[in-house]
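Hi R.,

Quick one: here's the Putative glutamate--cysteine ligase 2 sequence you asked about.
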Amino acid sequence: MRTFGVEEEFLLVNPATGNPVPVALAALTFPATDPEWHADGIGSRLTGELQLEQLEVSTVPCSTLSEIAEQLRAGRCVADTAAAANGARITALATSPLPVSPHLRANPRYRKMAGMHGIVAEEQLTCGMHIHVEVGSDAEGVGVLDHVRVWLPVLLALSANSPFWQGRDTGFASFRSRVWNRWPSSGPTPLFGSVRAYTRLVEELLATGVLLDPGMVYFDARLSNRYPTVEIRVPDVCLEVETAELIAGLARGLVEVSAKRWAQKIQPPAIPETLLRTAMWLAARNGMRGDLLDPATALPVAAAKVATDLLEHVAGSAGTPGEEARIRHLLSLHLRHGGGADRQRTTYARTAELESVVTDAVSATHGQTHRETELSLPAEL
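And here's the predicted structure, written out as tokens:
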């Protein structure tokens, strides 16, 4: 199976108040000798992000679904240990429920981004999850991009974990994705058909001067600039590790089946970018609680059907029989109990306190789920 890895971005919060706190630089000096440190036996890399209220954890490349899950849990522990040394906790919230004025990291690149993009950069306190899946060549990678594009909205819907923004319910399950799409290069891509077409679009974007560098090519899925991977960038950071495990497993299966179809010269669905953008909007609005657009027809269908269609689409390509059973099990639980946005809204409905939403999210980030008993069942169930 292809190797895969995950990057998760986390909010740094005051555990007493729930407010985001700008302590990333201090956290990155733990231990002080290495600001991008690797925990013994874990392999997780801790780095900063655009705002001082954020940390990012990257796993090493993994070969199995269980290894990814172990890395995700260990990485969250790594980041929380660094945060706790500075009076904070990490929480897997894709946006802050409480009002916040972020603090831009003092980095020349980030200063240039803020100078060019103004409030878009200043307000960009959002936390996503990126999945890297190994590809054999740029040609295979571009073929994969052409095939996966129609399935990306359902990955966003499954991950949706950002209903609140600046102290209010936005009406969206994933408002992070709407904030993120303020960037000029974000969103769905056209059908490329070749590496040259992909490269030409990137070159044309850079030639505008609006993007500082290739790192600002914020396509929903792209060829990685650093690794021999396709990078799927649409999900919110997931409140519970089990949801991140589910989405990472589906993403690897999606890349695998897409590479097979590309190799067989099967043409990808020719859904226009405008319809894909609409599909992403609907996924952000509804999460898994309503309709999504069908990947083949772009017509509304129940979100649960699109998710189960994706499961069937990747069947036989998502890992060992045990791994595929685990993915089916996790999806079944997700459809039954809901995701991060559902949990946040449920907590707020019960407590009427956004501070309680953050407190509950800290617990969920570190493994205290509302479905622990069921998640401990054997994968074959």
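Residues 32-41, 370-381 have pLDDT under 50 and may be disordered.

Cheers,
M.
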